[in-house]
Amino acid sequence: MNILEKIANELDTFSKSERKVAEVILSSPGTVIHASIAALAKQANISEPTVNRFCRRLDTKGYPDFKLHLAQSLANGTPYVNRHVDENDTAEEYTDKIFESTMASLELARKNLDANVINRAVDVLTQANKISFFGLGASAVVAHDALNKFFRFNVPVVYFDDILMQRMSAINSRQGDVVVVISHTGRTKSLVEVATLAKENDAIVIGITTDSTPLAKECNIVLSVDVAEDTDLYMPMSSRIAQLALIDVLATGFTLRRGTKFRDNLKKVKDSLRSSRFERKD
Amino acid sequence: MNILEKIANELDTFSKSERKVAEVILSSPGTVIHASIAALAKQANISEPTVNRFCRRLDTKGYPDFKLHLAQSLANGTPYVNRHVDENDTAEEYTDKIFESTMASLELARKNLDANVINRAVDVLTQANKISFFGLGASAVVAHDALNKFFRFNVPVVYFDDILMQRMSAINSRQGDVVVVISHTGRTKSLVEVATLAKENDAIVIGITTDSTPLAKECNIVLSVDVAEDTDLYMPMSSRIAQLALIDVLATGFTLRRGTKFRDNLKKVKDSLRSSRFERKD
DNA sequence: CGAGAATAATGAAAATTTATTTCATAATTA
DNA sequence: TAATTATGAAATAAATTTTCATTATTCTCG
């Protein structure tokens, strides 16, 4: 809880001298965070030890620690929350809301991700003979992005956003292949079938989806991206961004696992693009 | 400015020892606010005066004052900084860093976005006869995503990630058409040419790119997405996520501008997907 | 109700911890 | 090689905390 609120709440439980300190603090907390214990004691007309005891009473380690808490209370702006866009929002307002919701979702997704599972997924990916990324609709975008990333690693990698191609590809998969199936809902029938087919053909199936969904049940490894999707406007928004961040994580894990030499290779890929660009003047 | 961001920003201007402190602070700011100057110095393997000088360099009065700022930064909603992934990071560490960097980039992108420009872009989009999204590589993913979004609006919309198709499409554009060109660098020659072609053929060109680049100069409207891209691993990461968030903003602006009736239409599109999904049990 | 014992609150001064300054030395740059 | 800058050991200064004696408050019991 905010320490200022706490002080206000417990005002009655304080002793006479303590209340004096409390009042000084409440009346100008901004000044107090820059004051020494001596200065505060003087302003409240009480002794330094009393201030110290006051701080301890509020479950802080002492005066400096108390000031830290106070500083945090003062700074406590609104953290990112999923704020819904409103009919009459101005451009500025809905822009802010969307960015904040997105950040809130990322925060949430991160919390729900299990580092061990990521580790296993990276393990599997680094050892794959071939990697396939499948998604439909908004998740196709994520698969597309994954292709872009993993393509640079000089590993056989494919991406399909066409149900038939996905099925054929899944049926042709074999031991050593890894199939990454992406779906926010985890309920898209054809994708669940593709996952099943791939697994039946000995591929390792990694699902980027919501936990305990039909798709999740078909996967060998489930990277669960749980975000509260704002479906107000009937469009997937945050979920795909969290999925993309996860792709970044996997790609990063991949490069780290592959070691330094491998990263030189990435630089080569990057340099190869140079001639297609206008030179930077600086 | 947030003192954590400040540290991250000025990392290059620090001396060797100062950088050591900076790294310790960035890696666990939460611990530092409870540490004495001696403890921090020891952890960073440098002397106490160096820590003190480090604090002063960041425009604080000294170590205690620095801790106050740090505490405020931590409480300040954005503990997110662009932290670089390190060779020996565990899965947990690099996952956290990537999510945090992404959030930091979103924060930055939001700050740099101009609501007026967004408003104009939405204006133009709502009045378009046809909308085209062009991008290459990582930006193709963003264009792809834009297609997914705008397609739902029942507006003629196309997306190409093929240079030739982009050129042909640009040449065939006419008054009333809107072409959205996406490129983080803003220096990809063929895309700049496409923008020029589209403009010459009376289309309105919206650029989602970095300010004052060759591409930006060719556009009628520039939505500048300035994010500090971490090119350590030679892969575009944050930039495309910020671009996607911007697409969300544009799509949202679009739906808001079109009014209530229009949103019923969106619901229809969404409902049409239902039969392709497994039912939810709850 | 009130004397006095018990308890709690308080502050002066000492002790301790923490931060800063000074200054000599080491590292870096010109 | 000189000049500059960065760094840390030690000394100093500042601040916080502890100790302990004193004062205020509360409680008990005649």
Count the DSSP helices of chain A: 14
How many structural domains can be distinguished in the coordinates of chain A? 2
The quaternary state of the protein chains shown equals homodimer
CATH topology of the largest domain in chain A: Rossmann fold
Write the layout of secondary structure elements.
Two copies of one chain form a homodimer.
Chain A: H1 3-9, H2 16-27, H3 29-32, H4 37-44, H5 48-57, H6 63-75, H7 91-112, H8 115-126, E1 130-135, H9 138-151, E2 157-160, H10 163-171, E3 177-183, H11 189-200, E4 204-209, H12 214-218, E5 221-224, H13 238-258, H14 260-272
Parallel strand pairs in A: 1-2, 1-3, 3-4, 4-5
Helix pairs in contact in A: 2-4, 2-5, 4-5, 7-13, 8-13, 9-13, 10-11
Chain B binds a DNA duplex (30 and 30 nucleotides) through helix 2 and helix 5.
How would you sum up this structure, described in words?
The structure is a homodimer of 282-residue chains. In chain A, helix 12 links the parallel strand 4 and strand 5. Chain A has 14 helices and 5 strands. Chain A is elongated, with a radius of gyration of 27 Å. The first copy, chain A, folds into 2 domains: 73 residues, Orthogonal Bundle (Arc Repressor Mutant, subunit A); 180 residues, 3-Layer(aba) Sandwich (Rossmann fold). In chain A, helix 2 packs across helix 4 and helix 4 crosses helix 5. With 282 residues, the first copy, chain A, is α/β, with parallel strands linked by helices. The longest helix of chain A is centred in the middle third of the chain and has 22 residues. In chain A, strands 2-1-3-4-5 form a 5-stranded parallel beta sheet, sandwiched between helices. At the A-B interface, helix 6, helix 7, helix 8, helix 9 and helix 11 of A face helix 6, helix 7, helix 8, helix 9 and helix 11 of B. The structure holds a DNA duplex (30 and 30 nucleotides).
